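Example record used in the benchmark description.
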Amino acid sequence: MAAPPPIAQRRGVAVFTADKELRSRLVAKLKSLGRYEVREDDPQAFLAATRGAGQGGLVVFDVGDGTLLDDPRLYTLRERLSEHQLIVISSALSPERVRHVVRLQAADWLQTPFTDAEFEASLVQVEGSLAGLGSRVSTFIGATGGAGATTMSLMAAYLLARKSAAGETGLVDLDFQSASCGAYLNLGKELDLDALLAGPERLDTELLDLIKLDRPPGIALYSFERPGLYFAPNANRLVLRLLDQVALKYRDVVIDLPNLEVPWFDDVVSHSDNIFVVFETNVPSLRQARRLVTQIKEKHGAHLNVVPIANKTTFKLIGNTISRGDIAKMLGNVKFHTVSRDEELMTDALNRALIAPEISQRAKMVKEFSHIFQTVFGK
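Model output (structure tokens):
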């Protein structure tokens, strides 16, 4: 298996504008996001330079009324810096000069005046949906209710947080019916999501910090009990905006994704690096697991790392109602992992609002999940 991506570094961004007030505002916004190394200068300095924001960096270039688009140096420099992404800023432009913006192969174009939220939305678009800065997204899907996907999401976030050089892992609970992750950990926060539903673009990094639930050893949990959210007009935009922001902020992101036909299901799956399909060793759960594994691979490509996990297993030497061989056949001979049933440990964990490894590192189910963790994450 390929090694996991390196820890994300701050990305170089260069802001070039002659408008000092605009420059100050954009630089302040970039620095507040905490993921960029920012430099600033006049547009003429950019035109006279031989480099921009650094290898593979981002250039924010203000062409003002469009006069700068007539300067041939801009196009020569753009060819030299083809590996950079470019956001063009301008006032209203004539159709001819809009064609010049297209020639520059700009990743986005903002027309003044624009808000900080619109600027941040442009950054998210340029970075790419759920792409983050090298973020690794791991999604857990339960084949049936009670299969244990939430328990495994919590264990994965716990182990990733303990190993994280950044000291924090993002855990997003998309079960709005019961907010299972928050309920398991006895954490909750009363939030008025109506304003965010009315304008999902308002969700920025600063607001992200206000709505998270902190849990040692460095889990940043986003879990909201809001059953009506599934049917809200802007729910899809809000969920994807939340995931975009979380992926931009954390090196590792864990998602607890219910097996429901919601608008964001395919987006989450297609942008995940690891997809864990958790099922129990009974026929209905196995059928659902097979359907999910097949559907994900056919719809999103065989390159996705889909990891089936048979949870709550109890295998005997002989006399198993469903054997390992039966599971392999049901899954089409896809490699799968197993985690043992431990009702006593899980009952204790739930009653004490703890994650299983916090109670016993030596428990069989914890050791088996840790082995899966090490196999997939290389840690």
